[in-house]
Amino acid sequence: MTSNDSTYAAPQDSDQKRSQKKSVWEVLWVSFKLGLTSFGGPTAHLGYFHHEYVQRRKWLDEKAYADLVALCQFLPGPASSQVGIGIGLTRAGLLGGLAAWLGFTLPSVVILIAFAMLVGGGSVESYGWLKGLKIVAVVIVAQAILGMGKTLAPDRIRMSIVGIAAAIALVWASPISQIVIIMAAAVVGWFLYRQQQVKETTAFAVPIGRTIAVNSLILFGVLLVLLPLMRMWTGSDWVAMIDSFYRSGSLVFGGGHVVLPLLERELIPMGWLSENEFLAGYGAAQAVPGPLFTFAAYLGAISNGIFGAVVATLSIFLPAFLLVVGVLPFWNHIRRLPYVQAMLMGVNAAVVGILLGALYDPIWVQAINGTMEFVLAVFLFILLVCWKLPPWMIVAGGALGGWVLL
């Protein structure tokens, strides 16, 4: 009997491993497709993620997604990339988180390295297709806000929080404004909803032990302290590069646009590239899909070739990965506490408001400057929302429309 039992258990273990491997490849493929088509910056990325992971594949529900977005707004680093990493972690563990990051990041890294190697100081900002892709970002974000608003702000109080959060985010444009808005909304949610019976929260499995999580947070802190010391002790340009990019990725709140001045102050005084090369790369980074943090790949390639691009990219994203791995296993428990759920009712409405504010500025302001831009945006919105066309077709149609009409 023992022999038969052991013989029977082996196929189960084998099936489990095959299932996990399949999940990792699934995460990699889905995130890679998003990495190829997600234009428009971090707010638009959240819209693409919402459509693919929540609406289409149903890997997590609306509230779990909103809770994850709220958590990543608190963490330093690229919020949209951290949301993607978090979804990959819940889907397929550590390898899933790595696959989600790699798939979403790789397309823009390759494009920006090629731009650094072949184009150098060229400009892409005047191209019509780029204007069309900015209009696509308007459409994607508008659809995400519409869907999230119905679920996360169903009453007058939470809809009011949406409006107030949007107004504050627009009037007070600061790297810390999002954190202050979310904290204030948490207090309002606790005050107004702490006595209300809330629905049972759907738990999303996080197949990571708390020991790994704690070690990840410790490693994050150790590197943040140790790298500047190693830079002084060794005098190595490579250690200096790792330190500059790691510190920039560790200490920035507010997304990719905020990290740009940090990188400029770090790299240009070192003589690693010129001001014109920096600005040309920034223009290229705006034109490619995926996270703006991949601008590090261009900077590394300009200063130290392909190997420099790899080192810079890994260094700037490593803090984001360590923080998500370190916090997410605890977050699933914390978010199920009754008083935390009350706070999240306010926070999730504030997240919708922040997205609404970002829909206007910078997305709408940069994309819609005339009648033809508005007409194209309305046409693409109808195709996406009413005709249910997949996002990649909307991206292709927007690029074509921008090239032909604009």
UniProtKB/TrEMBL annotation:
Q: Where in the cell is it found?
A: Cell membrane
**Which InterPro entries does the entry link to?**
Chr_Tranpt_l_chain, Chromate_transpt
What are the GO MF terms of this UniProt record?
chromate transmembrane transporter activity
Coiled coil feature spans = none
Which keywords accompany this UniProt record? Cell membrane, Membrane, Transmembrane, Transmembrane helix
**Record-linked PANTHER family:** CHROMATE ION TRANSPORTER (EUROFUNG)
Q: Name one GO cellular component term.
A: plasma membrane
Family in the record? Belongs to the chromate ion transporter (CHR) (TC 2.A.51) family.
Q: What is its main location?
A: membrane
Transmembrane region(s): 98-120, 132-149, 161-192, 212-233, 306-330, 342-360, 366-387
Q: What is this protein called?
A: Chromate transporter
Indicate how the chain sits in the lipid bilayer.
Multi-pass membrane protein
Answer yes or no on keyword S-adenosyl-L-methionine. no
List, alphabetically, the Pfam families matched. Chromate_transp
